[in-house]
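A.,

Following up on our hallway conversation. Structure tokens first:
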């Protein structure tokens, strides 16, 4: 799918209204990166050496992203604000591995990348002398987020092959995530029509939905046609039930039981 276009419209980094919008967007990013660091918790539950390597690497990268966003705040002389409740909900750590890789890595970080790459990289003005350094930092973040999404997609595919029934709750949760995420944009309600960049927002929300929908079809749990309401409700109820149950899931370690085979020794 083609990248989103703001048709060359950019923020003015000296205009108070634009600075307020960027402060909001960057504050969500800063919070997301802070919670991203706690993917380190998944190291404890890693089921293979490959997963352990991934979470070790991701934790280091997310810690670096957190510091890069802090530097962007300092470069722009902005103060972060607390995160929106939807961001807090969507970025909460999940101990239940199938939901972690699907909701957080594949879909969640996928939407994060849409915002970093299609909004921040596109709508920051190259004419401002501060932007070159900021974009270099964002390029590092975007490249690494792509790795996290790829891991999420690979693991989601594997999990759906092992447990095909999960496609129902996954589909329901995707519907819910797509309904929840645009609530964040209500922070700009009333301003979208007149603002140079914000006027593209409704089109951007549609673009993200279509991309996530196509991603779900690719991963094999979103039907070609949007199903009728009864199935959607059934899938959403199942998704919510699984999510609630996941909140009580305990992190269990496996590597101390599997390390011999993982390392190629006979058990
Ligand atoms: Fe990150
Ligand atoms: Fe990430």
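Then the amino acids I'd put at each of the 267 positions:
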């Amino acid at each position: 799918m083609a990248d989103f276009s703001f048709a060359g419209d950019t923020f003015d980094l000296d205009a108070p209204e634009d600075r307020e919008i960027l402060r909001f967007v960057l504050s969500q990013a800063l919070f997301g990166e802070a919670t991203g660091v706690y993917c380190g918790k998944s190291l404890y539950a890693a089921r293979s050496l490959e997963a352990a390597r991934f979470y070790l690497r991701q934790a280091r990268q997310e810690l670096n992203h957190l510091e890069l966003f802090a530097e962007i705040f300092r470069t722009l002389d902005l103060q972060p604000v607390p995160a929106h409740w939807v961001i807090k909900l969507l970025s909460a750590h999940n101990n239940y591995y199938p939901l972690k890789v699907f909701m957080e890595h594949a879909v969640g970080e996928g939407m994060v990348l849409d915002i970093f790459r299609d909004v921040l990289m596109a709508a920051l003005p190259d004419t401002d002398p501060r932007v070159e350094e900021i974009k270099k930092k964002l390029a590092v973040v975007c490249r690494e987020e792509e790795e996290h999404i790829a891991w999420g997609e690979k693991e989601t595919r594997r999990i759906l092959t092992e447990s095909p029934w999960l496609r129902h709750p996954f589909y329901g949760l995707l519907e819910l995530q797509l309904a929840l995420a645009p609530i964040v944009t209500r922070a700009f309600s009333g301003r979208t029509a007149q603002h140079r960049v914000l006027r593209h927002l409704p089109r951007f929300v549609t673009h993200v939905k279509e991309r996530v929908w196509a991603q779900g079809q690719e991963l094999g749990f979103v039907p070609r046609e949007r199903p009728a309401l009864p199935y959607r409700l059934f899938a959403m109820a199942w998704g919510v039930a699984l999510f609630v149950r996941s909140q009580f899931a305990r992190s269990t370690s496996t590597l101390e039981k599997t390390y011999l085979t993982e390392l190629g020794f006979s058990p």
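The two ends are 46 Å apart (CA to CA). Curious whether your intuition agrees with the design.

B.
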